[in-house]
Amino acid sequence: MKKAIFLIAAVASTLFGNAQQANDNNSMLWKIEGKGIEKPSYLFGTIHVLCEEDFQIKEKVSNAFNSTSNLVLEVNSTDPKEMESMQKMMRSEITLSSRLNEAERKEANEILTSQMGITLEQANYVSPSGLMSIAIANAMKCPPTKIKFFEGEFVTMAQAQHKTIGGLETIDSQIVVMEKSYTLAEILNQIKLKSDYAQIMDNLARFHKEENLPELYRTITDRRFMNTTAENLMLTERNQAWVKKIPAIAKKESTFFAVGAGHLYGKNGVIELLKQQGYKVTPVK
């Protein structure tokens, strides 16, 4: 009888321990402390594009934001040079047609016509990264006028509170990463998955609202949409670059960092990389 009780207790401990461990990651907001950081900074995981009906800034996020004196995004969208680069990102002097052979041009035209309602000729001067951005927007369940951006909301809040605003990288560096991550053929194949993308966007919105960081990360790294090369370039390498900058910024002044939620979780995520440096990073429930 005693052995049975101990066995049940051991199994229960394992099960509840695992449940607690999973639950510990259920937050989009994390506090950064320790190693010379005098006042806590915060790390928040965003979804870059959400339909208005799925968008919300929870009270705990507002409280954390209001307690800091500095906002840092992936890119400082208030910098005119970055805005100019963003506009340039959408267009290319090298046409899409010139990147494809005759058979590929025919297939590309069919994909663009059926999935996006535009011809290859109409999209000819759109850059590959611009095409990817349009494809994602096209997969949203709401029209462009109903799309919300966390980054835009945070900038408006920061300006109202006279916070300083900064960025961890530049648009130009993001363009380089995108071009290395996906070939034009791979981007066109992604466009063919429009219905899958629509489901993915719904799942991301749900997991973000539920603050289920592990499931959100697994969704973002689904191999249908992000191969190992893209994951290394778009997530791992950028995370490693960011964690070289985040501590110095946090030590200088209390900062609210807002980056894509896919960058937070995993063994190469920003949370784990900061912990490896000796910083205390804890979920805000």
- Biggest sheet strand order reads 6-4-7-2-1-8
Mean pLDDT over the full residue set? 89
Number of strands: 8
Distance between the terminal alpha carbons, to the nearest Å? 40 Å
Question: Please, could you describe this protein's structure?
Answer:
Residues 1-22 form the signal peptide. Its main location: membrane. Keywords: Glycoprotein, Hydrolase, Membrane, Metal-binding, Metalloprotease, Protease, Signal, Transmembrane, Transmembrane helix. It is a single-pass type I membrane protein. This is TraB/GumN family protein. The protein is an alpha/beta fold and 285 residues long. It has a domain at 28-88 and 147-170 and 194-283. It contains 13 helices and eight strands. It has a six-stranded mixed beta sheet with strand order 6-4-7-2-1-8, with helices on both faces. Strands 3-5 form a two-stranded antiparallel sheet. A hairpin with a 2-residue loop joins strand 1 (29-34) and strand 2. The longest helix is centred in the N-terminal third of the chain and has 23 residues, at 2-24. The model is unreliable at 1-22 (pLDDT under 50).
